[in-house]
Amino acid sequence: MNEDVREDGADRDDRAGQRDCERSRPAPAGVGHPRPPQDPDLHDTPPYGTPGPWAPAPPVQPPASAAPPVQLPAPTAPAAPPAPPAASSAPAPVPPAAPPLPATAEPVPGAASGVRDPWARYDPWAVSRSAAGPLQRHGGPGTPARRRGRTRKALAGAALLLALVSGLAGGVVGVWLERDGGFGTVELPQAAKEPAGRDPDSVAGIAARALPGVVTLHVSGAAEAGTGTGFVLDTRGHILTNNHVVAPAGADGVITVTFHSGDTAQATVVGRDSGYDLAVVRVKGVHGLTPVPLGNSDNVRVGDPVVAIGAPFDLAGTVTAGIISATRRPITAGGEQADGSDVSYVDALQTDAPINPGNSGGPLLDAAGRVVGINSAIRSADGATGPEGGRAGSIGLGFAIPVNQGKRVAEELIGTGHATHPVIGVTLDMDYAGDGARVGTEDGDGGPAVTEGGPGDRAGLRAGDVVTAVDGRRVHSGEELIVRVRAHRPGDRLDLTVERAGAVRRASLVLGSSDGG
């Protein structure tokens, strides 16, 4: 019994060894079929047993390391197993259960020959390294539904991008069209050309007629220089201007006259008077002069339109316009000399037409283009009143010598070289602080304040009398009385209102004459 069992076990071992030998023994080249992709399982356990219809075909598993391809030997036909011994008539005894085989390592095919078998450790249920990612369900990447979703998103993004680009391009084009007016040449609407002529009574018409007769004077002397304005009186070359314009030239200075046409000529002083602040110069050898017509300052009324022409800050031919703000405005200008010989007393026309340094000596024209005043002084913001207003600009307070006074003085200067001043023959107390002009107690040399046999003496004036009005117009100071007197010619009769010892009396006075300086 035991022998049979041992024999059966031996037979099994022999068969297993024979199969191992057959596996390890190479088959002759070209004999049999190619070796199957896997070794037969000794225990016929699926899926390692004989491949059946349900066993999956193993995928090709690349070798773990790059090795040259190995040509597997062709298997040889297995040898026929030995015939079992003849069965005896007696029933075969049941062999006892075979003891478990020891767990021995399966020999690796090809290990003996040194060639690694790529199918040696194939496991169809093991997770492939190249396919270690998560399982994909329906609708995953690459499915038609997912591809349609990506397509819709791409189309929506492209549409949004197109809208943004189109909006940006439209904005840029719109800004360019708004700024440059579109494509091609830019042509803005413009009024058609009109006739050059203007209404004679307009500012443009007045300026067009007067500018050819207005000149600019550049004066230079040994110590100082200046710029002023003047206007032509006649065709002989006489030009009227202010005394303070030509004063820097002195006795041997240079006076250059520039006409509106740009032509220049040298001028000489014919005569000048500091009390009236007027002077006449003359140019010789100049033909085609255009005199500016003279008006009548007695006809001027407050509110009348006026035009001023001059060279403020040496800007020749400057035209400004305004109105007459006041008439017979008493002003004094100058006073830089210690003896007061340069002080001018003017019963002026006040205007708001802009007058600036350099306008001095220029004409103040009425609506008909006639001279009604000679621009002479301005009131500046710092309170100064003078020929140049402290070199400040206009604040709308300009003053002009009435042309009636200027005409008389100019005629005298052209005729005799000097002007006469009307006088009343008394010395005034310029320090009197009361209302009116008071006759002093003595003159500057200590003599009597009332000149004996003079106009005042003949009118009955006495020292200490206070003159309160001239021709019915109130007088508030000594300067104002002088201005009122200077506004007349020598020989004119004045009606004076005089206070003496609290009593008011009237006096009629005929103006005398004195030579001006």
Automatic annotation (TrEMBL):
Q: Where is the PDZ domain?
A: 422-502
Q: Where is this region: Disordered?
A: 1-115, 130-151, 439-458
One molecular function GO term is: serine-type endopeptidase activity
PANTHER family recorded: PEPTIDASE S12 (PTHR43343), PROTEASE DO-LIKE 8, CHLOROPLASTIC (PTHR43343:SF3)
Give the matching Pfam families: PDZ_2, Trypsin_2
InterPro entries (alphabetical)? Chloro_Bact_Ser_Proteases, PDZ, PDZ_sf, Peptidase_S1_PA, Peptidase_S1C
Which Gene Ontology terms describe the biological processes this protein takes part in? proteolysis
Q: Where is the composition biased (Pro residues)?
A: 48-85, 92-102
- Give the UniProt keywords, A-Z: Hydrolase, Membrane, Protease, Transmembrane, Transmembrane helix
Q: Which residues form a coiled coil?
A: none
User: How is this protein named in the record?
Assistant: PDZ domain-containing protein
Q: Which residues cross the membrane?
A: 154-177
Here the segments flagged for biased composition (Basic and acidic residues) are 7-25
